[in-house]
Design goal:
single chain, TPR-like_helical_dom_sf, mainly alpha, two-stranded antiparallel ribbon
Length: about 1150
């Protein structure tokens, strides 16, 4: 089946510039950026086609299809290039060009999909089709070739479309093509017409086209039959009115269209098909459709049986199970004429399971026998799920035998319940035997194949506990081969994503690489697995690899760049990457990608997030990004409260979610909780209100939410109740819901302790730290035992780390001698894991140390070092251990690494001097060089500003007013005047779009600069980054050590620039920056003695000196100008 989407993922009509659009593409799609958005590069590339050689054909073909992929998202730019490219080939006399055209047309499927999706039949007919007829033999033409030609789908300037209606209708009504091809033809036409059109009339034309064409293929009344599911993807697209449409008006028009081609008695069943498809993904739309049908029955005075049927009630009840379960009984009781136990009883059984109302579940299930309406497979599945949760294994098997005796079709739920029972018994052979039995029944047509991949997930549960990654991958390979042979859908992207998550939890990077290879080999990279893979590599600190996979996944989706789930994972990666100690260049790269995804998402049609998989994920990630943006804005502006456009945007986004009734998922509540617990917006009461809202809506609350709820409660308890009763009660509630020291009635079958164990441990640690070891120590000990039992003694690495870090604090508090022994023991444990990991990766990726492993080994290394120094036991051997770890890729935080290096550089004699130099050369000095480069570039920009001001205002006033910054940058009036002409010619280093100061280290983002922007940009404190670097004291010790080494090793002195080029460059640089920065900070401290952040203090001092005491009103056009609106073009 050919799959296309109905509209572009993001709305690009509001994009500020072409540069903004082009900023997103990267990695394998970098070539598309230049060909679509850089005219000089595009024309240069086109000109080379005249001289193309045979060797270049594969590369040019690949380039062309990279452009085709990106054209699904960047349509106008893409089709313009394709036209120019193909016209150039058509007019070329180069003998190699036919081979290039043949190479491209051999892969033409994606090109044809693009032509259909964009409605560009004119381009196809004028340029592509003649080449196909000339190069491709008729017997090699595909179904898609024929469809593209037959449809003739063309977008019009008015936002509508037209197609060869007469020819299509004739073909659908004939017997010349098979029925499955007719169905595909209908789907291709309708989906692409929805994508091509951009107006409401066009959308209605698409819906009418669907109704007419499907009737020709399926006959009258076809949508009454719920077994016809081939058109479900179309119903999913049609079921979402745009935000500009009134709900009732939209569906009234849909009904009118259906009634034109079908009898009134069945027309409303068309809406039932929409409800069936949206009951889980868009429950509010389903609920509103039911209300719409009720209103139509009243308004049109039609018989209820014409408008409503028992399936409407069933789908509405299913939607309310997600949306608002309080409405289930209300709607059910109000619509007695629509009752049908077969279609609706499953919902009430499911409700019993959710509420753990086992008595009602038993009564309902047994009553089905009494009514003579025996349970169906779905009812057995739900009941068996409950029996497994209650560990009633014998009753579980009794029901299974009953299903066999009755000859019912099996389903996945039945086998999942039985497999979970075997997992509880730690019987891996039994689990696999059950799955093999399920496969056998499917092959015999005695079991439904639906959700087979969900059952396959449980094959790995015991293997995950055993921790044998090799066995996991071998088992996976065996079933991949079996799937390929039997053609059964066993191994889904969700299964592979779960395996990827397990491997990342245990820092198994090499095994994760192997999993990726297997997925490539068996072509199993779908959006679920790609998203999980991106998250897994991100967790392992492989941010560039995760980003690379994002672009690969974008190219694999159908159409390319259409999957919101991939965008969501990519955005999460960049948000995490952005917070790491990285270079200025990398941080700007993150900023560009974050800005593109967030801005594009916010400008897009909101129903996009309802209608597309991954919509909730990307909304949650966008909210996280806005929150982080607000925090950074407030910090950079030294504000004590959250301010800025991001805060308002976040609030508006939350309101829209409420309007569209999207807030029925925990993921949308988490960013709001975090928002109310940041330093500048600390409102724990709001967190409790959000938590209450979640409970009222019966949203599944996991440990992810409890992290924030417990933080809020601890805040209240610290202030009002030092016994921590509220926190203790909430903690007990959470632990019981996960099955910790609780009977089955209090635990929640929807929660997974193993999955959330690390977060639960984090919550417990924070609690014990608040109440003290005396009160909380025993609880923590029991929790550790529970973890050991749950994981069969083999804790995942991230959980083990959490426990060991807390135990370290406990030993330190209680017993110094035991603390030393504990540090030594744990250092050896994690050093062993670290060494093994380093050996496995070898030279292929020397910096591939997962963050969790890096952080825990760094912690124990530093704490062990400090403890040994305190006890006078730190030896040369210990120095060597630390240096070896650093050289192997260990990256302590910037404070700890400077502490270690400062201590080592103070030792005499400097036995490990060259090894220390290798560590600094490889990991740190680049940050210092970046600082110096930024200082030099900013200095040039400052000089241009001063030159401008000297020419516009009184020179001495300017010099006096800006003295504090001029001293920092080391410039004077005489120096500026001497360079005035040269500085003027530089024109403020404007970019091609006119932005000021287009420098490498700190490009300015606007064409103008206000007086306050001036302080923001040139404030010396703002230039400090979290990039790994040597602190002032450490760099001073390094310079001293180099000088000493040079004196004592005269012959080897000349080798230093060869062995350590970066350090040598730093050593020979003008290092006055550091003394000038210290002098600036000293002046700030002298002029502002408040206990505040250095950024806020420096900003206040600069504002006071540059503006409050600015007698000549430099930068201010007029005295009456509004302070916030004053802006001066530089």
């Amino acid at each position: 089946m050919i799959n296309t989407r109905s509209y572009a993922t993001f709305n690009h009509s509001k994009a500020p510039t072409k540069e903004f659009l082009g900023s997103f593409l990267d990695h394998d799609y970098s070539i598309a950026t230049s060909l679509l958005f850089d005219e000089d590069a595009r024309m240069g590339y086109i000109s080379t086609l005249a001289h193309i050689t045979a060797e270049q054909v594969p590369k040019v073909t690949e380039d062309f299809y990279k452009v085709v992929d990106t054209s699904f998202e960047f349509q106008d730019e893409g089709i313009a290039f394709i036209e120019l490219f193909w016209e150039t080939l058509t007019n070329s006399t180069n003998e190699v060009v036919p081979d290039l055209q043949k190479s491209i047309l051999n892969r033409r499927e994606r090109l044809l999909l693009l032509i259909l999706y964009m409605g560009s039949f004119d381009v196809y007919d004028r340029l592509i089709l003649p080449s196909i007829r000339k190069i491709v033999p008729e017997d090699q033409l595909t179904f898609l070739d024929k469809v593209t030609t037959i449809l003739g789908l063309q977008r019009t300037l008015s936002g509508t479309f037209h197609y060869n209606e007469q020819e299509v209708m004739s073909l659908l009504g004939s017997s010349s093509i098979p029925e499955h091809e007719k169905k595909d033809l209908v789907k291709i036409l309708v989906k692409n017409s929805l994508a091509v059109g951009s107006s409401r009339s066009s959308r209605m034309h698409s819906i009418e086209t669907f109704v007419k064409c499907a009737k020709l293929v399926e006959g009258d009344r076809w949508f009454v039959d719920e077994k016809i599911v081939e058109y479900d993807s179309l119903f999913q697209l049609i079921g979402f009115p745009s935000s500009d449409d009134k709900f009732d008006d939209y569906f009234q028009e849909v009904i009118k269209i259906v009634e034109k081609h079908h009898d009134e008695s069945v027309s409303y069943h068309f809406l039932t098909s929409i409800m069936r498809n949206l009951s889980k993904t868009a429950p509010f739309v389903t609920y509103r459709l039911f209300e719409f049908k009720l209103a139509q029955w009243r308004q049109r005075n039609l018989p209820r049986t014409v408008v409503l049927n028992h399936l409407d009630l069933a789908y509405t009840l299913k939607a309310c199970l997600i949306l608002d379960e309080n409405k289930i009984y209300e709607i059910y009781l109000q619509n007695e004429d629509l009752h049908d136990s077969e279609s609706q009883e499953a919902i009430f059984l499911d409700l019993c399971v959710q509420h753990k109302d086992w008595k009602s579940l038993q009564d309902r299930f047994e009553n089905m026998y009494g009514k003579g309406n025996l349970p169906d497979t779905v009812h057995y599945g739900i009941t068996m799920r409950a029996l497994e949760f209650l560990e009633a294994d014998s009753e579980l098997e009794r029901l299974y035998e009953q299903i066999l005796d009755r000859g019912l079709m099996m389903n996945a739920s039945i086998f999942i319940a039985r497999m979970k029972a075997k997992i509880r018994q730690k019987n891996q052979d039994g689990v696999e035997q059950l799955f093999e039995e399920y496969i056998s029944l499917v092959l015999q047509k005695r079991a439904h194949v639906d959700n087979m991949s969900h059952a396959f997930l449980y094959v790995f549960q015991i293997l995950f506990l055993d921790g044998a990654n090799g066995t996991i991958l071998q088992t996976l390979l065996r079933y991949l081969e079996k799937e390929s042979h039997l053609k059964l859908p066993m191994v889904s992207g969700k299964v592979l994503s779960l395996i990827a998550s397990h491997l990342s939890r245990n820092c198994a990077l090499k095994d994760l690489d192997r999993l990726l290879e297997m997925a490539h080999q068996f072509q199993k990279i779908d959006s679920d697995f790609a998203s999980g893979l991106i998250d897994a590599y991100t967790k392992l600190g492989q941010y560039n690899k995760a980003d690379e996979i994002s672009y690969y996944a974008h190219g694999q989706t159908n159409p390319p760049f259409s999957d919101l789930q991939i965008y969501a994972s990519q955005l999460k990666t960049h948000l995490i990457w952005h917070r790491q100690p990285i270079s200025r260049k990398t941080k700007r790269y993150n900023d560009v990608k974050i800005n593109y995804i967030v801005s594009s998402a916010l400008q897009s049609e909101f129903t996009l997030f309802q209608s597309r998989p991954g919509g909730i994920d990307i909304l949650s990630s966008v909210m996280d990004s806005l929150r982080q943006n607000a925090i950074e804005y407030s910090r950079s502006n030294s504000l004590r409260y959250l301010r800025g456009r991001a805060v308002k945007t976040l609030h508006n986004l939350a309101k829209r979610q409420a309007i569209y009734r999207l807030r029925v998922d925990e993921r949308l509540f988490l960013p709001l909780m975090k928002q109310n617990l940041v330093y500048q917006n600390y409102k724990p009461l709001n967190v409790m209100k959000i938590f209450n809202e979640m409970n009222l809506k019966r949203v599944l609350v996991s440990a992810e939410s409890y992290v924030h709820v417990m933080k809020a409660l601890r805040s209240f308890d610290r202030r009002y109740d030092r016994s921590y009763k509220n926190s203790t009660d909430m903690l007990k509630q959470m632990l019981q819901s996960y099955g910790f020291e609780a009977d089955k009635s209090k635990s929640n079958p929807e929660l997974d302790f193993k999955k959330d164990s690390t977060l639960i441990c984090e919550i417990l640690v924070k609690y014990v730290q608040s109440v003290g070891l005396r009160k909380g120590g025993d609880l923590f000990s029991r929790f550790v035992v529970f973890c050991e039992d749950s994981f069969d003694g083999k804790l995942p690495l991230d959980l083990k780390v959490k426990i060991d870090l807390f135990l370290s604090d406990c030993y330190k508090e209680v017993n110094n001698a035991e603390y030393g022994a504990f540090l030594k023991e744990k250092w050896e444990v994690y050093w062993g894991i670290f060494s093994k990991h380093a050996r496995e990766m070898g030279n292929s990726n020397p910096t591939a140390i997962p963050p969790v492993l890096n952080d825990v080994l760094s912690y124990f290394t530093i704490q062990k070092m400090k403890h040994l120094i305190d006890t006078n036991a730190f030896t040369i051997h210990h120095q060597k251990e630390i240096i070896d770890a650093l050289r192997m890729g260990l990256h302590p935080n910037i404070f700890d690494i400077n502490y270690v290096l400062s201590h080592l550089l103070k030792q005499r004699p400097l036995i490990h001097f060259l090894d220390i130099m290798k560590v600094i050369e490889g990991h740190l000095i680049k940050g210092n060089l970046s600082e110096l480069e930024s200082y030099r570039e900013k200095k040039l920009c400052y000089k241009m500003c001063m030159n401008y001001l000297y020419n516009e205002y009184d020179e001495q006033s300017v010099a006096d007013n800006f003295k504090i910054l001029s001293d920092y940058f080391g410039v004077s009036m005489s120096k500026i005047k001497a360079q005035s002409k040269r500085l003027g010619r530089l024109n403020f280093l404007r970019s091609a779009s006119g932005r000021l100061f287009n420098i490498k280290t700190a490009p300015y983002g606007s064409r103008t600069m206000s007086q306050f922007d001036f302080i923001e940009y040139f404030n010396p404190v703002r230039d400090l980054s979290n990039e790994p670097r040597l602190f002032n004291e450490t760099s001073r010790l390094l310079i001293s050590a180099i000088s000493e080494y040079a004196r004592e090793n005269g012959k080897e002195k000349s080798l230093l620039p060869v062995s350590f080029p970066k350090i040598s460059k730093f050593y020979s640089s003008d290092l006055s920056y550091y003394s000038k920065l210290n002098a600036f900070n000293g002046k700030v401290d002298y002029l502002n003695s408040l206990r505040d952040s250095r950024l806020r203090k420096s900003k206040d001092v600069l504002r006071r000196l540059l503006f409050d005491h600015n007698s000549t009103k430099i930068f201010i056009p007029s005295a009456s100008s509004d302070r916030d609106g004053r802006e001066q073009n530089l």
